[in-house]
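Q: Got a minute? One more chain.
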Amino acid sequence: MDLSGYTEKNWENFYVDADVPEVCKKEPCVLGVDEAGRGPVLGPMVYGICYCPVTKHEDLKSEGVADSKTLTEEQREKIFDKIQENGDYIGWSLEVISPMYISTSMYKRPKVSLNEVSHNAAISLIKRAIAAGVKVSEVYVDTVGPPEKYEAKLQEIFPTLKVCVAKKADALFPCVSGASICAKVARDRALKGWSFPEDIEIDNWGSGYPGDAVTKNFLMNSLDPIFGFPGLVRFSWSTAEKILEEKCIPVMWKDDEEEEEKKDDTPSVLQFFARKQKESNDDKPTVPPPPKKKRYHYFTERCLAPVTSF
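A: Always. Here it is, folded:
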């Protein structure tokens, strides 16, 4: 698993794939989907798939695959090595989703939720496997959100496949367990190899979860009062947002000032109900001026302005 491309540019998302076994191009395959690192305030979230022929699905158990959360890091590494050794019938693919991408997605207008980011990653990996020639026939997914809705969404996108979305799928289906292990190993390695473009020298930030005292200490000590957190931090998490509000210098953006001016110029609703108005110099009734038109939200949400010259 070569993550050097991500280490060099850890602010961008990154794909890494195993070679597709020839047997997976010829025989119907099961494909499992799972993630690692959904909850932490630090580091990337990794989505993974693991696939093999339907006839070999139960053979994954003999390689020791199990829910990655029940295994130690050393056990996960050993099982991943076995998955690699059996590359003649087991394949996998991963998307490493950077903390920067997660946070900017959640701050977009309109907002892209973490669930939507997760769904998009799963869909992208399934399509990636099919495009690589994997003869996918069954897909098993550890749910994100209500399993019935998620399953219906995937079934609509992949109508020719058998799709099963379930809670605790990583403990129920060997291919999902395999995906869980691949994703977790990748996240652990990505964090160990993390390089700070901000020139921060620290190698212990705890578990990365908001409730961890070591992680909280890292958040407080790595904060810049003007530029905020380093790229390792998901600054859209409520824990990080609270620290930013309390410790950083407040900023008023130009867009905010323009919004305030627009509010001041907003006409009173009463003028729309007035039957007539009188001019100051005579008693002739006048029609109230039309309200000032606002820019369509498509342009304001994307901060687009008219072009006056080329």
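A: Strands lie at 14-17, 29-36, 45-53, 91-97, 136-142, 162-166, 277-278, 285-286.
Q: Perfect, thanks.
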